[in-house]
Write a structure and sequence with these properties.
This protein has 14 helices and 12 strands. It is an alpha/beta fold. It has 2 domains: 139 residues, Alpha-Beta Complex (Aspartate Aminotransferase, domain 1), CATH 3.90.1150; 223 residues, 3-Layer(aba) Sandwich (Aspartate Aminotransferase, domain 2). The chain has a 7-stranded mixed beta sheet, with helices on both faces. It has a 3-stranded antiparallel beta sheet with strand order 9-12-11. A two-stranded parallel ribbon has the order 1-10. Bound molecules: pyridoxal-5'-phosphate.
């Protein structure tokens, strides 16, 4: 069979491959400590499930508008206003099959051959692949651990060419847990406006913040940047709803309408009764979010301190999301070997940094219980010492 050339341009997800191997080992009865999870380990809060069940009982089981239920788009616009000081109407919102499809859809609507998309590394592994699937060119800018893996305004400025169309910004970040300060966000926004490019702000982890970290939504700074911003987000990480597949994008009207067109010929609407769960997630108390963040916070400190106590391993302190991005360069190993050997010899699963564009690092997720974290770190220490 001759497959389309675009298939060969993209890699298969390395994250999913290691997770699958760890799962298979678990199924065989092997005691695996897994730090590979890219999702919260909590069940979806009950009141959200109840709202979806009610919607099912009420017959909300049919096709809806491709862009999403009006009630949900309204609730999202309200949320963006109240939480993020972003000025959007319901007509600026599209409900998508997870945050992932809002980004995919955006690339399809915006990017064509010759267009460059600036992506700081380490990056969420799907960004460059989505750009390539839209026939664009990913321009990867490497960031430094010393700078908490943040792109500097100078680096952004230097990466911009006449072909630059879009900058991909993700704070809090997967895989590093880095959170840009409000001043750092303002400095990037200034360059985006001056050089007249667009920015997609992936804010899926905005609620998962620690200590005094603050999230500033880049589009809220002024009207010039808002006109050049696309917000991408969803319910997966904040409300532990990964399997529900409800995300959204907010964008200037012309772009939103283009994305609506693409969605109408691809996924159509997100599962109707799942959208009613999302409405409940926005319109009821956010206490459940804070409870999850508190659990993550306790694990974060434990794991950050334990990893930095292991000779040859180090990582910056994360201020958001639920990941530690650990520098393994002093072990003399590259990330794929490190992770394979760690899984085989100590039954500890983590994600090789090469998947995120950095081969000297490994991502450890702390979306798992404290006992697993303690046991896994004991094994990790033994592994590095050997
Ligand atoms: C999880 C994640 C998403 C989107 O996930 P969905 O399940 O599709 O909503 C987007 N960006 C980053 C960085 C993520 O980690």
């Amino acid at each position: 069979m001759k497959l389309a050339a675009r298939v060969n341009q993209v890699s298969t997800s390395l994250t999913l491959a290691i997770s699958a191997k760890a799962k298979a080992m678990k199924a065989e009865g092997i005691d695996v400590c897994s730090f590979s999870a890219g999702e919260p380990d909590f069940p979806t809060p009950k009141h959200i499930c109840e709202a979806a069940k009610t919607a099912l009982d009420e017959g909300k089981t049919r096709y809806g508008a491709a862009v999403g239920e009006l009630k949900l788009r309204q609730a999202i616009a309200n949320k963006l206003k109240t939480d993020n000081n972003l000025n959007y109407q319901a007509e600026n919102i599209i409900v998508t099959n997870g945050g992932k499809f809002s980004l995919f859809n955006l690339m399809q609507a915006l990017i064509e051959p010759g267009d460059e998309v600036i992506i700081p590394a380490p990056y969420w592994l799907s960004y460059p692949e989505m750009v390539k699937l839209a026939s664009g060119t990913p321009v990867i800018v490497n960031t430094l651990a010393e700078n908490d893996y943040k792109i500097t305004p100078e680096q952004l400025e230097q990466a911009i060419t006449p072909n630059s169309k879009l900058f991909v910004f993700n704070s809090p970040s997967n895989p590093t847990g880095t959170v840009y300060s409000p001043d750092e966000v303002r400095a990037l926004a200034k360059i985006i406006v001056e050089r007249d490019i667009l920015v997609v702000s992936d804010e899926i982890y905005e609620k998962i913040l620690y200590d005094d970290a603050q999230h500033l939504s880049i589009g809220s700074i002024n009207d010039e940047i808002l006109a050049r911003t696309i917000v991408s987000s969803g319910f997966a990480k904040s409300h532990s709803m990964t399997g529900w597949r409800v995300g959204y994008a907010a964008a200037p009207l012309e772009l939103l309408q283009a994305m609506a067109k693409i969605q109408s010929h691809s996924t159509s609407n997100v599962c109707t009764f799942a959208q009613y769960g999302a409405i409940a997630a926005l319109e009821s108390s956010q206490e459940c979010v804070q409870e999850m963040v508190q659990a993550f916070a306790q694990r974060r400190i434990y794991m950050y301190e334990a990893i930095n106590a292991i000779p040859k391993l180090s990582c910056p302190k994360p201020y958001g999301a639920f990941y530690l991005f650990v520098d393994i360069s002093q072990t003399g190993k590259k990330s794929l070997d490190f992770c394979n050997e760690l899984l085989e010899s100590k039954q500890v699963a983590a994600i090789p940094g090469i998947a995120f564009g950095m081969d000297d690092c490994v991502r450890f997720s702390y979306a798992t219980d404290l006992n697993t974290i303690k046991e896994g770190l004991k094994r990790l220490t033994e592994f590095v010492e050997q």
